[in-house]
Amino acid sequence: MKYVGIDLAGSPKRPTGLCVTNDHLNTWCSITYSDAEILDAVKKSKARVAAIDAPLALPKERHCLDEHCRGRAHFRTCDRVLMRMRIKFFPVTIGPMRALTTRGISLKKKLERFGLQVVETYPGASQDLLGFPRKQHDLEGLRKALVGIGCSGDAASRSLTGDELDAVSCALVARDYAKGSYMAIGDPSEIMMILPRF
Question: For residue 59, how many C-alpha atoms fall within 13 Å in the half-sphere facing its CB?
Fold first, then answer.
């Protein structure tokens, strides 16, 4: 079975990391840009589950990302759980996160039309929970940590960008989710963020 991780960029002009993995943790990584490229890569992978690093739902009190939106909630339940866990993140309503959230929600719908299960994840939180360095602190350390838990293929054989390494972390969460070994935080009426069980 194949699983895909997507480290989504807020704009198609910026690189989106994509990783396909399987039950043996072989990894195939690439950089994509447009939604069409992402959808084509996922379709070709024949993956059944996709985990995306992007907000895939708004706070339930909020109906849009406009500053004057009724309710004006900035945090979802899963975001509040991250705060209690002391994990740093950016809220969906701040600056560039608006574009990323809009794109993430749209991409989720497109992937679900392919019959994929799509979940939201956050590689920074996964890495914190597993004791791995985040990409901005130690790129090579993150790659070695992923190889250390059994990742092979591209993760072990070539230098990867931070976007690709975050996509590997996402793909591992997609695999965990498919196998029923994961942690879910949030409110089911809003969205559950999927993280590794630690």
Answer: 19
- Number of domains into which the chain is organized: 1
Q: From CA 9, how far away is CA 101, in angstroms rounded?
A: 10
Cα 129 from Cα 61, distance rounded (Å): 29
**Percentage above 90 pLDDT, the chain:** 85
For residue 46, give its domain range.
2-196
CA atoms within 13 A on the CB side of 181: 5
Please list the alpha-helical segments (H only) found in the chain. Answer: 35-45, 77-84, 97-112, 123-130, 139-148, 154-157, 162-179
Which CATH number characterizes residue 14's domain?
3.30.420.140
Partners of residue 187 on adjacent β-strands = 191
Summarised one tens digit per residue, pLDDT across range 132-146 is 999 999 999 999 999
